[in-house]
Amino acid sequence: MIEVRGLTKRYGDVLAVDDLTFAVRTGEVTGFLGPNGAGKSTTLRMVLGLDAATSGTATVGGRPYADQPAPLKAVGALLDAGAVLPSRTAYHHLLALAAGNGLPRGRVAEVLAEVGLEKVAGRRTGTYSLGMRQRLGIAAALLGDPPVLIFDEPLNGLDPEGIVWIRGLMRRMAAEGRAVLMSSHLMSEMALTADHLIVIGRGRLVADTGMKDFIEAHSVREVFVRTPRPAALRRLLAAGTDVRADGADGLVVSGLEAAEVGALAAAAGIELHELTPRQPSLEQAFMDLTRDSVEYQAEVA
Ligand code: ADP
Asked: Domain ABC transporter spans what residues (predicted)?
């Protein structure tokens, strides 16, 4: 539904987006992940026709955003939750948007209900909390019932309840068959929300992969072991295994399952006081990945 081909944006000396190519499919939440400054917002702005590409193309449903006959029916976007007149009520804000885009008035009440703002719709948005403004931004994105939704860092600054709510909404929108693209600089957020992952670093594509595959490929399985004989265990495990000390009597082992470490220790008569598989750090995998992309860039330059 969203297709980006060779997309490039240069601001003077800064190559913000560098020959980016990817597609966002329907029925999935696609996470758009990269460190701050990687080029995510710039890419989304080009997809939404808010910024002109230096070269390359971005289309939604086969057309550039500027050529959409009814943009709000084609794409709903949440870019900046602050961008609403503070003196207007939420109801009038949405009504004006609906009228300006030839959408039925009835949609306003529907989207207010969808985002849970119906009770406060008559209040001026200047009195809204960040979470409420975020919900209003999402109501606006949903107004045209579009098949494509784009959210730029939608979880920033939200309380835990708001985060859970937006995650649920994105999952629901994807389950209805829409294409949902969500940017974030946090891997942990993505792992809980996205089915597919597009990772960029310094404007370049670093990974385009299923979330499950990414987790499989990049999570280093580790086992924490405590033993009164760490040196002996370390010698035993040395070949082909990455072992590092953690405290006086602890070792962190990667490359072996907990059961394998336990079996080796038992066979050698080494007493264990703890044997714990550790949660893989996806955040670390993501940082390794984007750091590599930066190093690779430096090499070819
Ligand atoms: P992200 O959204 O991933 O944090 P951005 O797309 O905001 O990244 O920024 C990518 C790069 O482009 C950064 O180096 C940023 O400083 C630069 N940049 C973004 N917008 C502009 C602009 N209007 N003028 C000059 N540089 C910009």
From this structure: 2-227
Nearest CA to ligand 1 atom 21: 11
Burial group, residue 254, by CB count within 10 angstroms (0-12, 13-18, 19+): middle
Q: Where in the chain is the domain with CATH 3.40.50.300?
A: 2-210
The rounded distance, in Å, linking the Cα atoms of 1 and 13 is: 32
Give the chain's length. Answer: 301
Which is higher by pLDDT, 81 or 180? 180
Give the Å distance between the CA of 197 and the centre of ligand 1: 21
Give CA–CA dist 205/185, Å, rounded. Answer: 15
Rounded Cα gap, residues 65 and 235, in angstroms: 61
CA atoms within 13 A on the CB side of 24: 32
Q: Which residues of 89-115 are buried (b: 16+ CB within 10 A; e: fewer)?
A: bbbbbbbebbeeeebeeebbeebbebb
Residue nearest (by alpha carbon) to ligand 1 atom 10: 39
Q: What is the mean pLDDT of residues 92-98?
A: 94
d(CA 149, CA 162): 18
Question: For ligand 1, is residue 193 a contact (CB within 6 Å)?
Answer: no
* CATH no., domain 222-279: 3.30.70
- Domain at 2-210: CATH code: 3.40.50.300
Digit-coded pLDDT (tens) for 25-79: 999 999 999 988 999 999 999 999 999 999 999 999 999 999 999 899 999 999 8
CA 190 remoteness from chain centre = 4
Cα torsion through 117, 120, 125, 130, rounded to 10: -50
Q: Which residues pair with 210 in a beta bridge?
A: 196
Q: Whose CA is nearest to atom 16 of ligand 1?
A: 37
Q: What are phi and psi of 207, to 5 degrees?
A: -155, 145
User: What's the 149 CA to ligand 1 centre distance in angstroms?
Assistant: 22
